[in-house]
Amino acid sequence: MDQILHQLGQLLLRAVPTFLLVIVLHFYLKSMFFKPMGKVMQERYDATEGARKLAEESTVRASQKTAEYEAAMRAARGEVYQAQEQIHKQLQEREVEELAKARQRSEALIEEARAALAREVEAAKAGLAKDSELLAGQITEAVLRRSAA
Predict the structure, then answer these.
(1) Domain map (residue ranges) of the chain
(2) Separation between Cα atoms, residue 51 and residue 81, nearest integer Å
(3) Whole-prediction pTM value?
(4) What is the signed CA dihedral for 34, 36, 37, 43, rounded to 10 degrees?
(5) How confident is the model at residue 50, as a pLDDT?
(6) pLDDT for 6-61, tens place per residue?
(7) How far is residue 69's CA from residue 75's CA, in Å, rounded to a whole number?
C-alpha cells in the first residue's frame, strides 16, 4: 500500500506542472481571448440592440407624426367642408333674395300691365261710346232721310 501511495504521490507530482500549465493557460486565454471576444460580442450586441432601439424610436416618432398629420388633414377637411357649407348657404340666401326681387319686379310689371290694360279698356269703352253715338247719329240721320224721302 505504501507503494501505491508512493506511486500516487509521484503521479500527482508529475501532474502538478500540467495542472499549473492548464491554470496559466486558462488565465492567459481568459485575458487574451475571452475578454476581447466578450468585449466584441458586447459591442456587437450593444450596436445591434442600439440600432433596434433607434429603429423602434423612429417608428414611434413616425407613428406620432403620422397621427399628427392625419389629425391636421381631418381638421383641414373640416374647415374646407365648413367653408363650402357657408358658401353654399350664402349662395342660397343670395338666390332667395334675387328670387324675391324678381318676384317683386314681375308683380310690379303685372300691376303696371293691369293698369295699362284698364286704361286701354276705359279708352276703348270711351271710344266705343263715342263711336256708338256717332253711329247712332248716322243711323238716325239715314233713317230720317229715308223717311223724309
Answers:
(1) 1-113
(2) 44
(3) 0.44
(4) 140
(5) 81
(6) 898 888 888 889 999 999 999 999 999 899 999 999 888 888 888 889 899 999 99
(7) 10
